[in-house]
Amino acid sequence: MLKLNQLASLGQSIWYDYIRRQFITRGELQKLIEKGLRGVTSNPSIFEKAIAGSSDYDEDIKELIEQDLTVQEIYEKLVVKDIQLAASLMLPVYYKTNELDGYVSLEVSPTLAHNSHATIDEAKRLYKLLERKNVMIKVPATQEGLPAITELIGSGISVNMTLIFNIDNYKQVAEAYLKGLELLSERGGDISKVSSVASFFISRIDADVDKEVNKRNADHLKGKIAIANAKVAYQIFQKIYHTPRWKALEKRGARVQRLLWASTGVKNPSYPDTIYVDGLIGKQTVNTVPPATFNDFMDHGSLIITLDENIEEAISQLEELKSLDIDLDKITNQLQAEGLESFSKSFENLMKAIELKIENIKEERKPFRVITSGYQASVENSMLELKMQRIVERIWEKDYTVWGDRPDEISNRLGWLKSPDVSLEMLSDIYEFVESIRKEGFKNALLLGMGGSSLAPEVFSKTFGTKDGYLNLEILDSTHPEKVLEYNKKFDPEETLYIVSTKSGGTVETFSFMKFFYNQTLAKVGIKNVGNHFIAITDPQSGLETIAKELKFRKIFLNDPNIGGRYSALSLFGIVPAALIGVDLDKLLNNALVMVCNSEGANCPIHGDNTPAKLGVVMGTLAEFGRDKITFITSKQLKYFGNWVEQLIAESTGKIGKGILPVVGEEILEPEYYSNDRIFIHLKFENESANDESVEKFKRAGHPVVEIILKDIYELGGEFFRWEMATAIAGWKLNIQPFDQPNVEAAKILAREMLAEYLKEGKLNQPNPNFEMNGIKVYSNDYSSDITSLFNNQLGRNAEDFRERENQYIAIHAYVKPNESVDKLLHSFRTLLQKKYKSAITVGYGPGFLHSTGQLHKGDAGKGVFIQFISTSKNDAAIPDNAGDEKSTMSFGTLITAQAFGDRKALKNSGRKVITFLFDGTEIEKSINQIVKAFN
Ligand SMILES: O=P(O)(O)OC[C@H]1O[C@](O)(CO)[C@@H](O)[C@@H]1O
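Above: query sequence and 6-O-phosphono-beta-D-fructofuranose SMILES. Below: predicted holo structure tokens.
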């Protein structure tokens, strides 16, 4: 028997908490009905994502514009049609189950929730408009909503009472329902023809209660209260529907108002993903599940009655909560108010989204557009392949076989699919923390981290800036001693919060920063206060978690361990730093959710507009044709997004002899300076045209271009997700496992070996240079003894020679203190190289890039040439052996030099060409200038 039918035979019906046009019209809903699905629920937030996140409704909107309707009227037409279509599909279920199931719910506008009359009028109007028997009108269970239920049931309209969190509120809802049946009977109506469910919310209760439980160190109650509360509600349900009053109604054909478990998607990633389905199975109940939970349940959910089990335990858990002074009534009342507010906000956003759609349609604006140039047929074939193999659906089903034969480092790396949802649930906790920080007068936040732990925070800090009254956030990801010392001077520890951010909890750079700044802060504020200046963001049970506890950090944020660094922008790694500078995270994450909806399986890239899938297919397909240098042309303000996406693409795709090279921050030149290995991404804001002309030239020259136009910076929420999904899909196309980084370790091992030798011998064992040039030591793989022959031998005399030597790109690695003037110099050298070799040139600061593009450099097809600039340091800084201890056996200067030469060796070991220049820290600019001149 089908799993859902088995569940139904235990007395529980599964409904689907999701709707959108193509999901209905392209047969997905029908398929689920065939699997035993018994109902559908919607809410303003679901419609917001569906309409804003897809082009499913565009045709209808076009027609409706012609009819001169208002935005509100257009909205209504769209949703009424969806509900009608879904209700028609559900009708056979309605009949087959004798009108028990087969319902589709539509919510009255949440803005009316505090007005009984308005709610009643609106519900009646919608019911009439829908013209279907198997619909339920959803009404929020506010005090004003209670009379509405009585009147609506009394009028023969089926009702789904929603946003119930609280036991007393549930009793009121049940009472209002009984009154409604009595009223209908008095009015001579047929009470057997009316139906109702009481939507009792689950996971949000745990999210809020867990915060309080945490504060009281009562871990055993974590993740328990939502289910305990529901079990108690179920006991009450059973009592109510055994009273003589009920029996009298039942005799006349009345149906019980079933408890419907809502909000049953898991928000805390450390809980089992089907906990709120498995734990709530009982007779005469419904569970409405979001798509992800549906998939999880179908895959491994259990089929055992649990609602009647361990009632005593549930009651004692609730009692214990009371004894801990946690007021569940207060929390649940607050949750209802917040729920209403959030639905009202979604409703407002939905209206804005429709307005924007109308504008876009009228002006024929396309915020995402692919110009494939000569590759249209191949891209279309790949799209078909993607569709036939159900790749997008399988990604959402977390099917590791999309990328490999084994689940290792895939199955436990897909947490990012849920990040926007999970993070939204954590906002109240994060905001509470930020308020405490602001109150205590912290002015600066210095984030200590590498790669995926630092690049998204940098995007937030550089793109959004600091809101008034929030902290100034800067990022330290350079171990160059002068950079470390610069921050030591720039930020007064007394006013600074240090964010130690590392997924693995053991990254050497991050730990070195942490120990250094801990000691500096300790000296300034004393042992009692030092922990107050530090927070950690890390995975559960990491080395950092242990140390942060020992050192009494003021807060430890534990992230979902199923998310890799480069996929962590929308998880705690990105959003905690963003909250500290006052980014409106609700807006950002909701924007990401619109993109989540856009990337769903139901939104087929061929028939729908699944832009992440399209982008991924384009990236993968063109890379197979040798267009594997993805070049970003961005608005100035979006520059740092380029750095984030650079790591995502490079580290995900650059392995097993393949890879897509991201090129960011290149000067835009005339088309003649580019080879046929490029695809351009033009990422800009609307009403901005600075680079339009150049991009047109690239199109005319036959380069494929993807245009992405953002309305405002908050759309970056969606952009993070779009690129994550696209990269995962490009991985599928290229037959690459996008979530591991097999070559990163090589450089780390070699650097560690050098450091071990240093500790033994008291000096770093560096190789011998090939030659010296005015104090600059030059290292190379060949036997050149002057710089001109070196460049000619390694790079080539001109563009043709460069290619003949099987070179495709040059990566400049600068192990120097990053600053503006060095930046300028490096970029002018980059342009010179590009002009001469007509090839992609990238620039990265070491050791930062090792955690970003370093994987690709050693893992790709080996067509890169590497130029290292390494400077010694005027001043060095000691790395304490342990936090709180003066003793030091190594300095930042030693560490960075070991890393540079370690990487040189790793590159050489992988057969890459490497040219290294080592010069004095007092003469960085002079030395780089000299090298550039010699090249010229
Ligand atoms: O967050 P962590 O564990 O410190 O890692 C930082 C970065 O280092 C890498 O593991 C590469 O070394 C990246 O994948 C990651 O983003």
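The pocket of 6-O-phosphono-beta-D-fructofuranose is lined by residues 450-453, 502-504, 507, 510, 565-566, 651, 741, 744, 851 (CB under 6 Å).
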